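re the bet — no i am not wrong, look at it urself. input seq straight from the record:
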Amino acid sequence: MTKSDVTQIKIGKHKVGFVGLKETFKDIAELYSKQPDDVVAEELLNRLSKKNYISDKVQKEYGLVFVREFRKFLGQLFDDENDQGLEIKVLGAGCVLCNSLENDVMEVLSEMRLTADLEHVRDVEEIAKYNVKGTPALIINGKVICSGNIPSKNIIRNWLEEIGFQKYSGGKMDKPVLIKNISFSEPHHLDELVAYEEGRVVSRTFSQNSSLSLTLFSFDEGEGVSTHTAPGDAMVQILDGEALVNIDGKEMTVSKGQVVVMPADIPHSVTAIKRFKMLLTVVKKLRNIESR
């Protein structure tokens, strides 16, 4: 069994790996794409139980999750009312507008003190599965909210409130949450917080504001981020694997345990020699404030 045979999916607050998930989705896609959820759940449980141990006690819960992932695999809308979490995806190859939408979403989440699983989907084939009319696009809990434009932060806030996610209040944690997508007061291994996915670059944003961004990435072998510049000094910390980093024409191999800093406004790119994971910290330049 190779790493690519195992797919990590979110069940409740945790991610669980399943063998043969994507292969099973491909096998039943044509026959079951229009079948009701209960029929799809039964078929997926029957097939996946042959390669994975699934206790009788969790059959119903896992069946619902399998259906959710199957609908997402097909690019279909899915009913996520049984999932109490907030899952947001920004679709876009990484242009200025796409990055701007991701930043706005992060700021709204921070202002509303909401924790969400936020992912910026850059892979063209993955984006195509959502059948959006254009990018950037915003997906909230599996539903296409907008595409081809950038909504204002007020509109994003209104959408979240209409879906049922209100500003958090009360309790000892009633304070601004500056770091997202990671549980507090618990130890973590960074390299376990983002999974490898075949043919994809996967990201998990921890913080995004006017002075700092903190993002965890996984790159499949051969995948990368094309030449671009950053609004601040960007430090790459390799957590696993090996990457080729190009900074203004200077190429270097960076491996697990090493860091490299890419200066602000200098063209750079990153490509996976072997599949690798990295923590990217960008410290942005402070804006000058003119005194009146």
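see?? The radius of gyration is 20 Å. told u. also Residues 220 and 275 are 4 Å apart (CA to CA). so pay up
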